[in-house]
Each structure stands twice: as structure tokens, then as C-alpha cells.
């Protein structure tokens, strides 16, 4: 599998072992939960972030998620780290003598779209739990909760 790979759900995955629902319903549910992440490849390639920008985006996403997930002192610490990274990114761009407001807006827009995708994905996982769609049980479900899968 690689770039420009097409995934055919008709022949690829047997869902009977994963769901209490019939195979077609399970296939549609799991397909909408997992494979939509492929939609982020082209925008990320268009952005073509360098190493510093990638680290900034990953940290923005991670600190935002951790702060919202755990609240309290974790939120405060996450916000402080995010501020430090923002200042470092400002210094990085300043040393390159570029006007970076548009670039920063594009990076943050991408981070927001990934964050919104994961929040939407979590809602679908929660619906699957409520309606008891999946029959897979995990020994440590908190690991998957925090990974939103």
C-alpha cells in the first residue's frame, strides 16, 4: 500500500468478528470511523511543513487535547507549553526574516481540522458504545480512549 492507493471495502475486511451488528452495518460504521483520515494527506502535502512546523503542529494538537481531556493543572501546564512553543516559533520565523502570519494561519487551520476530525471520530466511537455495535473488548480501554480509536 502506498500513495494513491484505493481501498475497496467490498473485498478487504471481514467485520463479522468485530461487531454484534450485521456485517454491512459494521462495515459502514467502522469505515466512517477510521478511513477518513486519508483526507488529510493532500492538505498536509500542500502545506509542506518543515521539521519545526511539524513539531509545532503536533504539540499544538497534543497540548490542546491533553488540556481539554484532563483539565485543572494539566490544562494550565499545557497552555504554558503551548505559549513557549508559540514564542519559539515566532523566534524561528523572525530569524528567517519572513512575514509569517498567513503561514501560521494555514498551520493552525490544519491542526484545527485534525482536532475536529478526532472529536467527531470520538463521538462515533461513543455512539458505538451506546448502541453496543462493537463486540471487541480491550484489557486497557483507556489507552484506546486517549487515542480516540
Write the layout of secondary structure elements.
Blueprint: H1 9-12, H2 23-34, H3 41-47, H4 51-70, H5 72-95, H6 101-130, H7 141-147
Helix pairs in contact: 2-6, 4-5, 4-6
Protein name: NR LBD domain-containing protein
Keywords: Receptor, Transcription, Transcription regulation
Domain NR LBD: 1-147
Rough shape?
elongated
The amount of beta strand, in percent, is under 5%
Number of helices: 7
What would you report as the Rg, rounded to the nearest angstrom? 19 Å
> How far is the N terminus from the C terminus?
21 Å
Count the domains.
1
Q: What is the share of helical residues? A: 55-70%
Structural class designation: mainly alpha
**Extended strand count:** 0
Largest sheet report: none
Order of helices and strands: HHHHHHH
Mean pLDDT: 77
Amino acid at each position: 500500500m502506498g500513495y494513491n492507493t484505493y481501498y475497496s471495502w467490498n473485498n478487504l475486511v471481514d467485520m463479522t468478528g468485530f461487531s454484534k451488528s450485521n456485517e454491512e452495518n459494521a462495515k459502514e460504521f467502522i469505515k466512517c470511523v477510521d478511513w477518513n483520515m486519508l483526507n488529510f494527506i493532500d492538505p498536509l502535502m500542500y502545506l509542506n511543513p518543515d521539521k519545526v512546523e511539524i513539531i509545532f503542529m503536533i504539540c499544538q494538537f497534543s497540548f490542546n487535547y491533553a488540556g481539554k481531556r484532563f483539565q485543572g493543572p494539566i490544562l494550565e501546564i499545557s497552555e504554558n507549553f503551548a505559549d513557549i512553543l508559540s514564542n519559539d516559533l515566532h523566534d524561528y520565523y523572525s530569524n528567517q526574516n519572513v512575514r509569517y502570519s498567513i503561514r501560521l494561519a494555514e498551520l493552525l487551520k490544519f491542526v484545527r481540522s485534525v482536532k475536529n476530525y478526532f472529536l467527531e471520530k470520538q463521538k462515533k466511537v461513543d455512539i458505538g458504545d451506546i448502541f453496543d455495535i462493537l463486540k471487541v473488548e480491550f484489557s486497557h480501554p483507556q489507552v484506546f480512549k486517549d487515542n480516540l480509536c
